[in-house]
């Protein structure tokens, strides 16, 4: 059966549908698979009820193409008001009964992706949340497949990561007990760099036991970047990790990054990721329908680009610079200039010189003019964000993705066309250009009409930047000369 046929008239339950991956997944399922209904778990937040949040999400531009192709797509969406971390997801009995009687496919994508979340919250959302969704899925009468979205970095203390379940230093049960005793204990992380990857590893460990004998798989994508082509090239949701770095460099705000330029990064476009995720569900359903016992174990699919199309941070950033020279943002505050080094001491010194001292001058001038001073605060936050991803920028991993490659090989030509996720001959230069233009449009809200002004401003920033360097060298030279004399 083709992928679209597998989903035809089926009912899908998606958690995390208001997030980056969840939105694209929902859109693609509605556009390319003739599903009967998609039930999306949405929580009320900041006083906005779940129903309103779901309606607002479906009005966003990411659904414009779908709206054009199928104006009534909203009728296929059922909003389930709930929180993954609450018992029985905190959903009404009526919704619970409906899910049990109707759902065929579960995509569990909801999580906290904040790297440095406190351990108690990360445990509640990423571990207890997963247990809660699994418990509900176990009751579903017509469940054909369950895919848990993990991360390629869940076992990041290892440099080589295979598509297997690895042992974890503590079980979920023991961790929860520890947290009950000592609320925010961090000593449990061992070699994991943060609570996010640690709790994702523990959630995978729960899936490995598959106590409820579910038709289940684990999907491990690496760093998810903007859309390559669907529903629109360059689409992105918000300023997460990679986008944050590229945007801050282009604005001339980020001038020193702890990074090894010769290390491989591993980026996958969001639309490819959603296609791979849907294909993993298709494979999961087929595996379990096949009936043989050996296929009835949870399987892991690593979704990475590095095997077929490796790219180094240095090459990726060169492409960012090349595109920046063609289309700099009008909002840039300084000419593009950034120092990269794996030496943390050096980077901290450069941060003082290139971030904090100029920021202090700008703040001082703001205070004198009776305005709010915000640059030092901004740099404190920015450096904190970059520090939280430093482990990713200075290391590289060898990911085995044999299961995903086998899955790709199994897809028919027709399915490949609709659910493309392969990386043969992937053009990183063109993808990086798409990302830079996407940031310009979606994050900075600048369209191409401002290009003449942006280029003219950029020329001025270029001269100002070089003049400043000349001035600093001159002053240092003069000081040295005076000292020697
Ligand atoms: N982004 C990446 O680069 C990346 C890479 C590898 C793996 N992943 C995995 O992909 C999945 C999705 O990530 P993402 O980038 O889409 O993250 P995201 O944009 O932060 O979305 C997270 C989603 O989870 C929902 N959620 C969080 N806590 C919830 C709760 N208590 N109850 C109900 N819903 C809750 C959020 O809902 P609200 O809107 O209500 O907050 C949101 O819809 C995650 O499992 C993540 O580990 C992401």
TrEMBL record:
Keyword Transmembrane helix annotated: yes
Pfam family, one: Sterile
Transmembrane portions of the chain: 461-484
Catalysed conversion reaction: a long-chain fatty acyl-CoA + 2 NADPH + 2 H(+) = a long-chain primary fatty alcohol + 2 NADP(+) + CoA
EC number from the UniProt entry: 1.2.1.84
Domain spans labelled Fatty acyl-CoA reductase C-terminal: 354-446
Record Gene3D superfamilies: NAD(P)-binding Rossmann-like Domain
CC per GO annotation: peroxisome
EC supergroup of this enzyme: oxidoreductase
Keywords carried by this UniProt record: Lipid biosynthesis, Lipid metabolism, Membrane, NADP, Oxidoreductase, Transmembrane, Transmembrane helix
GO BP: any one term: long-chain fatty-acyl-CoA metabolic process
Domain annotation Thioester reductase (TE): ranges: 14-276
Family to which this protein belongs: Belongs to the fatty acyl-CoA reductase family.
Protein name: Fatty acyl-CoA reductase
Organism name: Macrosiphum euphorbiae (potato aphid)
């Amino acid at each position: 059966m083709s992928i679209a046929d597998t989903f035809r008239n089926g009912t899908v339950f998606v958690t995390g549908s208001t997030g980056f991956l969840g939105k694209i997944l929902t859109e693609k399922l509605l556009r390319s698979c003739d599903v009967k209904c998609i039930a999306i778990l949405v929580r009320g937040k900041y006083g906005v009820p779940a129903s309103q949040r779901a309606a607002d999400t479906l009005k966003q531009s990411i659904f414009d193409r779908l709206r054009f192709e199928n104006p009534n797509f909203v009728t296929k969406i059922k909003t389930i008001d709930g929180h993954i971390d609450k018992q029985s997801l905190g959903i009404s009995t009526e919704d619970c009964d409906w899910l049990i009687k109707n759902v065929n496919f579960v995509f569990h994508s909801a999580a906290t992706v904040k790297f440095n979340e406190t351990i108690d919250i990360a445990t509640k959302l990423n571990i207890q949340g997963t247990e809660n969704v699994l418990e509900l899925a176990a009751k579903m009468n017509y469940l054909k497949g369950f895919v848990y979205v993990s991360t390629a970095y869940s076992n990041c203390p290892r440099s080589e990561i295979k598509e297997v379940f690895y042992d974890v230093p503590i079980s979920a049960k023991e961790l929860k007990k520890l947290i009950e005793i000592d609320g925010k204990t961090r000593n449990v992380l061992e070699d994991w760099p943060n609570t996010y990857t640690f709790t994702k590893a523990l959630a995978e460990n729960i899936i490995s036991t598959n106590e409820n004998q579910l038709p289940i798989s684990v999907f491990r994508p690496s760093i998810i970047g903007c859309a390559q082509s669907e529903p629109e090239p360059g689409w992105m949701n918000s300023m997460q990790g990679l986008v944050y770095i590229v945007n801050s460099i282009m604005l001339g705000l980020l001038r020193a990054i702890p990074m090894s330029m010769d290390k491989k990064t591993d980026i996958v476009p969001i639309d490819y990721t959603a296609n791979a995720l849907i294909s993993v569900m298709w494979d999961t359903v087929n595996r379990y329908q096949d009936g043989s016992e050996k296929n009835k174990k949870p399987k892991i699919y690593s979704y990475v680009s590095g095997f077929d199309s490796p790219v180094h941070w240095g090459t990726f950033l060169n492409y960012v610079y090349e595109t920046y020279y063609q289309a700099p943002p009008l909002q840039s505050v300084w000419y593009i200039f950034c120092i990269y080094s794996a030496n943390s001491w050096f980077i901290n010194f450069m941060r003082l010189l290139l971030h904090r001292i100029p920021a202090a001058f700008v703040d001082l001038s703001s205070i004198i003019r009776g305005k709010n001073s915000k640059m030092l605060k901004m740099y404190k936050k920015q450096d904190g964000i970059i520090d939280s991803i430093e482990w990713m920028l200075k290391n590289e991993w060898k990911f085995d993705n044999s299961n995903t490659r086998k899955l790709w090989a199994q897809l028919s030509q027709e399915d490949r066309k609709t659910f493309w996720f392969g990386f043969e001959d992937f053009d990183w230069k063109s993808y990086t250009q798409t990302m830079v233009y996407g940031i310009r449009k979606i994050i900075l809200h600048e369209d191409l009409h401002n290009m003449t002004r942006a280029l003219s401003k950029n020329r001025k920033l270029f001269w100002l930047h070089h003049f400043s360097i000349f001035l600093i060298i001159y002053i240092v030279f003069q000081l040295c000369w005076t000292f020697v004399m």
